[in-house]
Amino acid sequence: GNSVTQMEGPVTLSEEAFLTINCTYTATGYPSLFWYVQYPGEGLQLLLKATKADDKGSNKGFEATYRKETTSFHLEKGSVQVSDSAVYFCALIRYNNNDMRFGAGTRLTVKP
Amino acid sequence: NAGVMQNPRHLVRRRGQEARLRCSPMKGHSHVYWYRQLPEEGLKFMVYLQKENIIDESGMPKERFSAEFPKEGPSILRIQQVVRGDSAAYFCASSPGTEQFFGPGTRLTVL
To answer: What does the mean pLDDT of chain A come to?
Structure first.
């Protein structure tokens, strides 16, 4: 079946450090891939997405590239800020299928 | 276009009472999903509904939990005879058929 595996957290970084959160997936066909962010006490917000192989999603300095050959969608940011502290969820949805699968989430804490 | 609305935002119930959680999807969205998030854990899928139909309830506990999405009005997640283990954040999401848009959640506390 379809599933997503994220690197386990928590991840603690200093401000301006480089961030990578790994995400790999298992799916039949060609899923669309997403990163969601959840700030404390809030719901999930869509951060970025990619709908086909080699697409790069980007938003707010975050990037992720859809790699079909490695079935990965790793989230990266070159210089994190304290305000990026949140839980990040990788997710997939198969084309024309409303079944969205989420990873377990990775908690990021950025210290000043 | 207002986002996904959930109410109440916080709900406190005593053991044995009923909890009703409401979700109004974004305008034009006919797909609704309910998730549960336990403290310090990820999202767990519960149920997927379209108008008047339950499409997938594989994540819903077999007893005490039910969900509906009537032709008119919000989707309702109902938990009967709540227990302490039901304390969690319950998130609703709606979709036009692609990515999901999340509401702010209802935080249920069972005393």
So the answer is: 92
